[in-house]
Amino acid sequence: MNILGIETSCDETSASIVKDGREVLSNVINSQIDIHEKYGGVVPEIASRNHLMNIPVVVEQALKEADLNFDDIDAIAVTNGPGLVGALLVGVSYAKALSSALNIPLIGVNHLEGHIAANYIKAKELEPPFLCLVVSGGHTHLILVKDYTDFEILGRSIDDAAGEAFDKIARVIGLGYPGGPKLEKLAREGNKEAIDFPRVYMSPGSLDFSFSGLKSAVLNFLNNNKQKGIEYEPKDVAASFQAAVLDVLTDKTLKASKDNNIDIVAIAGGVSANQALREQLENALKEENIKFYSPDFIYSTDNAAMIASQAYYNFKDNKLSDNHLDATPNLKFGLD
Ligand code: KG4
Ligand code: ZN
């Protein structure tokens, strides 16, 4: 079964064709990073306008790279949330029109469920149940993947998402947008023990996250030093901040897997591209004989292959959409 996936939830316009949920025939991503960089973040109206221009181009390219025609496509999948409403609307409207014109099924996919499915592309043997740490620009969730379309949230951030914290700290130390990859690069040169930033664990036993206190601690450190005229090394701030985030993510993921007797853990979302996080998590899990999966880097950040992959399982579970499918900026897990 060939599914054409479409992803436009933020600043990447992507189209991909995936066969039977796991075999990527093409994955075309048009990133708008260069356009939004000068504004220091994603400008929603500009993102929507660019999606509108790019979407027919990336779809054509996805067909071409897979060496297929529209006739070879069996279903259309599209991200219907969460994300920027105008950006989502472009993809949803296009997908609805295409499924109607081709008279083939339409499958709405939750963006976060798509991130999780990115793991199926590399690890052909991976099957639920497993635990997944989803860390992106908008979400930090510990998800129990009970089945392909059955999810339980074990923990989540009560304030900033991990990626959001990376982006904010990157901005204040002058790295610009997108902050995550730039901060990781700088952190590699710094001393992670230089500054003892707080690790916030919430109440004992909690699997929820909070990163706003850490963010304030970094801002206070920078302001105090500035007022006192003390020089600091941005690379040490980057390394110490990153270490504080990674410690909490690692400890809570380990705790969630032990509490729930799960011996398979995956990671997903843009922050999962962070090499230091992958290494720290893998090492911690290995000590407990827990298997660790991570997507290829290209499938960590936003892409349409992950959407087409999850759509295959939605289709198999008869979770189809119709022409009433709408863009839902705050879409919850579990297709509800
Ligand atoms: O999943 P994603 O591409 O988009 C959303 O669904 O939000 O995630 C984007 C987030 C951004 O906050 C970006 O800074 C972060 O992922 N990110 C990283 C790295 N690469 C991307 N954060 C830390 N280290 C990275 N290498
Ligand atoms: Zn994402």
What is the overall number of helices? Answer: 10
β-sheet strand percentage: 15-25%
Number of spatially distinct domains: 2
The CATH topology assignment of the largest domain is: Nucleotidyltransferase, domain 5
**Can you summarize the main beta sheet?**
5 strands, mixed
Poorly predicted regions are: none
Look at the structure and give the CATH class of the largest domain: Alpha Beta
CATH superfamily of the largest domain: ATPase, nucleotide binding domain
Q: Report helical residue fraction.
A: 40-55%
Radius of gyration from CA coordinates: 20 Å
Helix/strand class = alpha/beta
Which kinds of small molecule does this entry bind, naming each only once?
A: 5'-O-[(R)-(carboxyoxy)(hydroxy)phosphoryl]adenosine, zinc ion
Oligomer: single chain
Q: What is the string of helix and strand elements?
A: EEEHHEHEHEEEHHHHEHEH
